[in-house]
Write a structure and sequence with these properties.
Belongs to the YjdM family. The chain has one helix at residues 37-43; strands at residues 17-19, 22-24, 31-33, 61-63, 67-68, 75-76, 81-82, 86-87, 94-98, 102-106, 111-113. The chain is mainly β. The protein folds into 2 domains: 1-43, N-terminal domain of TfIIb (Single Sheet); 60-113, SH3 type barrels. The strands form 4 sheets. A 3-stranded antiparallel β-sheet has the order 1-2-3, with no helix packed on it. Strands 7-4-11 form a 3-stranded antiparallel β-sheet, with no helix packed on it. The protein has a 3-stranded antiparallel β-sheet with strand order 8-9-10, with no helix packed on it.
Length: 114
């Protein structure tokens, strides 16, 4: 049984091989991903607020419950508006600056889009 790998998209060589999640061309040294479109879309996961609204960079959100600030005795109060959010990967998927608190990361489940 012969396994057929795709030709190199750069030089069209038929001598490509697979190494983990990459295809590699030995002739021109071009490497490209083996990820399918479904895996790429999963990596670009849609982030939603507590009400199911899709969030995007630059949105303004409001905090829906009092949140303790880790490493301090301060509390972010319910209704605090957070402007110009930035979406990032990870458990805390919102990166932002809050007046009076500074740079912070929030979980999207504790905010709602304004």
């Amino acid at each position: 049984m012969t396994v057929h790998f795709p030709n190199c998209p750069q030089c069209n060589s038929e001598y490509t091989y697979e190494d983990r999640k990459l295809f590699i061309c030995p002739e021109c040294s071009h490497e490209w991903s083996t990820e399918s479109e479904a895996e790429k879309n999963e990596a670009n996961k849609i982030i939603k607020d507590s009400n199911g609204n899709v969030l995007s960079d630059g949105d303004t959100v409001s905090i829906i419950k009092d949140l303790k600030v880790k490493g301090s005795s301060s509390v972010l109060k319910i209704g605090t508006k957070v402007k110009n959010i930035r979406l990032v990967e990870g458990d805390h998927d919102i990166d932002c600056k809050i007046d009076g608190f500074g740079a912070m990361k929030l979980k999207s489940e504790f905010v709602k889009k304004v």
